[in-house]
């Protein structure tokens, strides 16, 4: 994959929507870029979070006529997709000195993940809202959110439901919840991927799934929803309203 850099964008690459690489990123946004100098025996590793984007503003900024050589029809090509890279750490390896590690300020992605971790401990029901291929809005009440060190955040669901069909056509979704007693409210924008392979079902098996009627990882009626956070917001409504009252 050819990397580019432009002020206002940073490091990015151009690709086509629907490729295997895009699907991998939607499942796991954590990547490493590795650059090696074989003559000097040096290596630079860049630990990144990546995002897949087709937004018009980014297309306007990043478009080059050279992309026409890659079989794109133009800036309005529906397949034209950009992958942007946000560094967390840069590690410089040499044969003669200890590794040099440069750490960036905490990026928004990591802050969003912390909010999501707090949400997963909430133990409440959540509203999952998505839009299907006919632009109809679907909202469903979901149960527990679990954290898995490999897949990050997941939920269980039944295979073949309207929700699953909707998510296969459009992975962009919103999770929301509110606790009246404390005033805590969460809003999570995410890419939610339906996973049915046995390896993932075994990895994410939870006793709570069994209590809801699933028979185990071999149960074809079970689907795991992998939640890839793109934006997370937390607001305590009671504190917010109290602050507004004090401003009057």
TrEMBL record:
Pfam families named among the record's database cross-references: Pyrid_ox_like
Top-level taxonomic group: Eukaryota
Gene3D superfamilies xref list: Electron Transport, Fmn-binding Protein, Chain A (2.30.110.10)
Domain General stress protein FMN-binding split barrel: 11-87
Protein's UniProt name: General stress protein FMN-binding split barrel domain-containing protein
